[in-house]
Amino acid sequence: MDSCRIPANASKCSGNTMECFMVLSTQAQKISIGILCGLFGTMCVFENSLVLYLIFSSPGIRKKPSYLFIGSLALADILASIIFVCSFVNFHVFNEAGFSKEVFLLQLGGVNTSFSASLSSLLLTALDRYLSISRPSQYKLLMTRKRAWTALAVLWVTCATIAGLPLLGWNCCTLDSSCSELFPFVDDNYLSGWLCWVVVLLGCIVCAYAHVLWRARQHVAYMEQHQAQAGKQNSRMRMDVMLAKTLVMVLAVLMLCWSPVLVLMIYSIFGRLSDRLRKVFAFCSTLCLLNSMINPIIYALRSKELFSSLRRVLSHFRRQLKAPEESPEAESSHKSSVIETVCEDMHAV
């Protein structure tokens, strides 16, 4: 195993870097983490897979850039859930440390890429709503499918590059620098830079949504003053206002779920974390899964188009369940009963 400088509060581990970060000391804590990860991860994969299916199975929905960004968010949440649950449970619950530094940093890079892409997808969605509400007449010219796909490609490449920097050499083992107290082999300076990146993303999202909400309130006031002028423009405004409120709910959930983790990360850079706080960080990390699980629920409840698509899927599923009743065996039984009835009638005659 590669050796590197470890945190001061982990010096009792006698140089075994990986074991220093296995903070769950009791079986109850491990079982709790395992149950939370299993429950949140399974629901997250199922719900976001359903969202992706609803988006790309409907030609009318998948053509809209707004839902391409939401699809990117769902895909990022699926990948984050799978990679996070597998690596997190394997490390903290089963205490598996028999892998190299490169393998661990690859897993960490996958988690960071997915969660960063999830956050960046929210930023693109916020900018899309900003354009839709601030420039409704030019929206279709400004936000085309080609530009949406290009933005998504830049997004994923950027997130993967930033997340892969520790694997490429920016780690405390290669640089012989100060290691993070929360993540093995992660350089404190890299963690600081990653946190700045996340804070910038959140700040841009908040600014975009602040303007979206301001314009949405203007639209609501306009619609209240022009109720008699019902038409396509008012319908479009209602859709923009509804989608803006939906995305604000997503952002609120995001902040509530990620704030504890981000606060502890920032604190670990400027101070020393006790063993209790490191355990709290492990449990708070599962809130990121909770966020990914709640997002598709918000879409289903707030998006009329996705909800209508879901109803069509459920209706088709119910028809498929009723199909066995019309199977060849049922048809043969029906024919037999008809023949018996005819024979009885002939006998009576």
Automatic annotation (TrEMBL):
Domain of life: Eukaryota
Keyword set, alphabetical order: Cell membrane, Cell projection, G-protein coupled receptor, Glycoprotein, Membrane, Receptor, Transducer, Transmembrane, Transmembrane helix
Keyword Transmembrane: yes
PROSITE patterns: G_PROTEIN_RECEP_F1_1, G_PROTEIN_RECEP_F1_2
GO molecular function ontology, one term from the record: cannabinoid receptor activity
Residue ranges occupied by any G-protein coupled receptors family 1 profile domain in the UniProt entry: 47-299
Transmembrane segments: 31-55, 67-91, 103-127, 148-170, 190-214, 246-268, 280-301
GO cellular component, one term: plasma membrane
Family: Belongs to the G-protein coupled receptor 1 family.
Name listed for the protein in its UniProt record: Cannabinoid receptor 2
Source organism (scientific name): Junco hyemalis (Dark-eyed junco)
